[in-house]
Please model this.
Amino acid sequence: MPDRYLGKQIGKYRVIKLLGGGSFAWVYEAIDRDLEIPVALKILRPEFAGQAEAETRFRREAATAARLRHPNIVTVRDVGQIDGASFVAMDLLPVSLGRRLELVGPLPESEVVRVGLDVAAALATAHAGGVVHRDIKPDNILIGPHGEFVVADFGLARALSADPGLSAQQVTGTPHYFSPEQARGAELDGRSDLYALGVTLFRAATGRLPFEGEEWYAVARQHIEAKPPLVRSYMPSLTPEFEAVVDRLLSKDAAGRYATALQLADALGDVPSSPLPRSTTTARAAASQTVQVSTNQPSVPSTMRDIGIRTIALVALVTTSAAALAMWQLPSLRSLNPWAVTAPTSSTVALPSAPQVQAVSTPVARDSSLDATGAVPPRARSAESPAFVDTVRRQALTSVRSKLVLRAPDDAMLYVDGVLVGHGTATVTRPGAARLTVRAVLADAPVSCTAAQRDSIIRLSVGEQERVVVLSVKTCLNVRFAVTPDDAKVRFESLDGGTSVEVHADAKVVMLPEGRYEVRASAPRCSAYLGDTLLVRRGAAPESLYRPIRMDCK
Model:
């Protein structure tokens, strides 16, 4: 059981809580006691821990991943084995793209393109170093503190692939992201990762997978034989250019896909919704011509790796944080990074104008009553002129900007119109009369915890300088109880104005949002029970979240 490591000391790491797990490892949040920082600790499951060959491959592949350095690749800090536990310690990024898709559903096309650009930059670096990921999927794409997308688990899927006792489903977790050659068990190169990224972009844009089925081999067969649907058949609002990129990524023949991740980045940069300036296309094209990554790897000469890593910087410059730009010492290109503006706990983000505002502001020069410069001719400068009144209204809507300040708990993710703008506190500016959909989400809360997500629609008025919106979100915790008699009903009455919950005695566990509750119980032929106040909060001792209830019955 994964609980076996909770509270334990693994070398210099103190295990705090379980974050998740896969078919071959469990992932925990732990504290590095030397550096006093939180880390993600991936520990090989016990059924593999006794196998010397599996452990050796696990540590070897983790060490290979540790040598990959890129802002869009998670940093591996340590690899080792202590007390029979083989582990990998890496930077803690608790929120994945998969979790985000569960919380908010399909993403705007511009955000999906950002996912593709960031992952393509990571894959370009890895492929130039002779490393194929083999398990690209939303759960392996993490969200960094500045909103960047970071790829994790490089090479770890391959660590157990040589074990004949494991099925393909066990090795890579899920077949829904298999490339056709992976489903056939053929040799893989970087183009297999590009196929899996195509499936990931398909899901991020539409909220569904191109191929689904109850049995993993049935899904794998579809990847080999069935023609994938087009993304616009599920989401017509997507652009044809984006659809063409995804469709090429899902080509059955590896030769029909992009030859390298650099070519993919160049294609995504030309999509109309891309956050990259189109002028960067030439630089990316030059980079893709400078280095040609072999599609029949596993190995690449060291000189080619050196060339590849240097040229891949051109992609990293437009897809990662300002720190990456400084690292490559190209300050003149810092303006090419349009999204590295969100701070971990407080940020100011200027979002693009809402579609309805653009619709008002763009036709001004085409108005028959205006001259070529957009000015109002003398004949229309009358207070009674409809053209003059309409022009003044348009200018008011587009020139006056309002500030929206969002406040929530420090670990809450904040979204405006589906775009992540910060954590805890964020400030955005928009034109007056804008209609915004805002959302606060606690990503580490249980999926069924409705209190961990709050949506609101905000309408900014013309001339409104600032609006402060507090989004109250709370995580949920499990409260255990034992009741006698067995036919009793237990009610947890909220003392904070929240929702009260009533359950039967046989439930034994109830999930409650953080807050204060009064515990009550009732049963036929028994006196009503009115207990003490229950405080539900994060960090509470387990014994404080347990209530034994005994009632006086006839």
